[in-house]
């Protein structure tokens, strides 16, 4: 089984009528009731089984395909700038520590 190809906005859209806090089972039920795509349901199946306090908490838990909708040029550009699939942009742009600078010498 492959990675679910669903973006966080799609997942959150399917959960727009959910009252929080809600657990994983409630989120899955709500997504199905809202007519969510199989990809959205699959993305929700991949989140940890815990209680979620809000949409932001769900957004952080959902694993979306980082290269979805990006062409080869965009992926290559990201790779040239130190990007790795699945790593958040704020982590990619972190300044180098003195140790990393020493390794680069």
TrEMBL record:
InterPro entries the UniProt entry points to: DUF2795
Disordered as annotated region, ranges: 63-105
Pfam families in the record: DUF2795
Start-end of Basic and acidic residues biased regions: 63-80, 90-105
Record-given protein name: DUF2795 domain-containing protein
Species for this entry: Streptomyces dangxiongensis
Lineage, opening ranks: Bacteria, Bacillati, Actinomycetota, Actinomycetes, Kitasatosporales
């Amino acid at each position: 089984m492959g990675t679910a190809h669903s973006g966080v906005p799609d997942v959150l859209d399917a959960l727009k009528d959910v009252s929080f806090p809600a657990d994983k089972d409630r989120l899955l039920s709500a997504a199905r009731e809202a007519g969510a795509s199989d990809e959205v349901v699959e993305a929700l199946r991949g989140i940890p089984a815990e209680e979620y306090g809000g949409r932001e908490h769900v957004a952080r838990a959902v694993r979306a395909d980082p290269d979805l909708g990006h062409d080869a040029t965009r992926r290559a550009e990201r790779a040239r700038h130190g990007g790795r699939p699945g790593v958040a942009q704020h982590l990619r742009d972190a300044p180098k520590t003195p140790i990393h600078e020493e390794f680069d010498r």
